[in-house]
Amino acid sequence: MPENDHYRTLNIQPDATQEEIQKSYRALARRYHPDLNPQPSAARAMAAINAAYEVLSEPLKRAAYDKVHKKPDSALSNVVLGAAREALLRKGWSVQQDKTSELILKNGSRAVHVALIPTATSLALHRLARNASALPVVLTAKTEPNIRFPKDSVVVIDVLRSTILHGVLPDATYRDLFSRFI
User: Across the chain, what does the average pLDDT equal?
Assistant: First the structure.
């Protein structure tokens, strides 16, 4: 278990909701609690899980943690992804869902579920592949080392390098929507 990154310890993204934090904590507790797991490392893992949950489950502690542990390049990533989000919204597709880090856009029979993720992780990509209600597309500024891309049709675009890292946009209408980023 990673000791310094509470989000990684709980297998969640930094924008996880309180419900997602609690759900992940409970699943990990069932897996690593020393009463349920005889492995010698279970107690150590459970201590790290408890420490992460104690911080992330309390909004004030979480805000303080986020401020101290914010990645130095995240400000640039957030600016770039914010501009990408605004560019997508100006493309004329109807907005079905509008969250800070996710959009669902529709144009006729085509729909796209866009996730704006500063650092793409294997966990985030697989979660999007599982939960997307339309063609899943990730716009990211960075990917974690040794990322495992899902076999599903997730399209991953590195907006800083103007490159499709994984997947294929199925037709010219989708390519036009994302043309600014590739």
Answer: 90
